Amino acid sequence: MSIATPPVPFFDTLEEMANPYKHRIATVKHLLEDEPENATDDYQLASEFLYSYRGSPDTFSTYRREIEHFLHWCWLIAKKSLKSIRREDIESYIEFASNPPKTWIGEKNVSRYELKGGDRVPNPDWRPYVVHPKSSGEAPYFLSQSAIQSIFGVLSSFCNFLIQEEYLEFNPVSQIRQKGKFLRKTQSTKAIRRLSQLQWSYVLETAEKMAAEEKIHERTLFIMNALFGMYLRISELVETDRWTPKMGDFERDLEGNWWFRTVGKGNKERQISVSDSMLEALKRYRQARGLPELPSPGEYTPLVHKARGQGGITSTRQIRGIVQDCFDGAETNLRKDGFVEEAQQLTAATVHWLRHTGISEDVKHRPREHVRDDAGHGSSAITDRYIDVQLNERHASARKKRIKPD
Question: Which of 183, 187, 202, 360 is the most buried (most CB within 10 A)?
Fold first, then answer.
């Protein structure tokens, strides 16, 4: 296989992935033309490792991406099995991942496999690496510091698994003594990417206008409110094997307070306090769907319904598309009203910015422990990253510094 030819996806979605313990891998000839020595064993163990994360779809997706990229490099570039990987190979792989072949880079996220004649076959438009979909022109592929950290973290965990399976004798990632040449150290906390108050007001106003013009966009408005008002992650709005969000997850306690129950990152269940504004947003959404104002205990109505057919949305990609349509409309309105810089900044926004924005606004007036628990943060230190009062004070003290003396 030529490097000019993009590789096929090595792993399907979590829903389509067979249990590798029950269905052992017989060959990998369907993935590549020349099968390296021990490739079948490599793939079997990689599948077992990934399958162990089936209880957490977000973690599974991250690990699948990193393991798949690494196997692409091992088999197609280095022509090596996992058994023969050494420290210097990991370093070479990081350099490769920082500058992959152009033919391996796509401009948008597409499905890995598609149905043809009843069989799932690799999507010819799929690419292992993707330039940010909002980049314009000839923007180069860029491997961020967080992406490099993800590579090191996932590969180290994978290698430890291979050691436990007696497939490797040592962890080549842990042998890299100078990770600093790949990872930069910083003396300050990385800024949280979020919307400004002006951007959020335009986004919300756009969603409201969309809902007024077309009933299906009441769903859009509810999604925007839920992501901002309850700090939800996108995965907490879709149906998965581990969790099905439903109207009955809104619950009222004996004191009359409303809570929303969800299962988030790390398969952790938590209760989120529901504000009066969020409760009004829920009432509006339910009325638009022909439901009573408030859900009944144990109500199984899907939280975010499909536009056609029965049941709830099962694809995070669809949620992203809904949010992106709203962002695009808000960007247009910002430009129309002369806020060109704010509009330009909005082009970089993603769904997760809404969660960041909601948390950032709330830590200004709510106890951080309350925000921490509603957000599902593992510690207050994570919540503290959203408190930027000190940054504002720091900048204010520097604003009138003089360069030229009087």
Answer: 202
Domain of residue 236 covers 197-393
Domain count, the chain: 2
| C-alpha separations of 61 from 11, 56, 315 in Å | 10, 9, 13
- Which sign does the torsion angle of CA 46, 48, 49, 53 carry? positive
Q: What is the pLDDT along the chain (406 residues), one digit of tens a residue?
A: 557 788 999 999 888 888 998 888 888 888 887 777 889 999 999 999 999 888 778 888 999 999 999 999 999 999 999 999 998 999 899 999 988 999 999 888 889 999 888 889 999 999 999 886 554 445 577 777 888 888 989 999 999 999 989 999 889 988 775 555 555 555 445 567 889 999 999 999 999 999 999 999 999 999 999 999 999 998 899 988 778 999 999 999 999 999 999 988 777 889 999 999 999 999 999 999 999 999 999 999 999 999 888 889 988 889 999 999 999 999 999 999 999 999 998 988 889 899 999 998 888 888 889 989 998 888 877 777 777 655 555 566 667 766 766 6
275 and 355 assigned to the same domain: yes
User: Contact at 8 Å (CB) between 105 and 141?
Assistant: yes
Residue 9 lies in a domain: no
Q: With residue 133 as reference, give the H or E element that holds it.
A: none
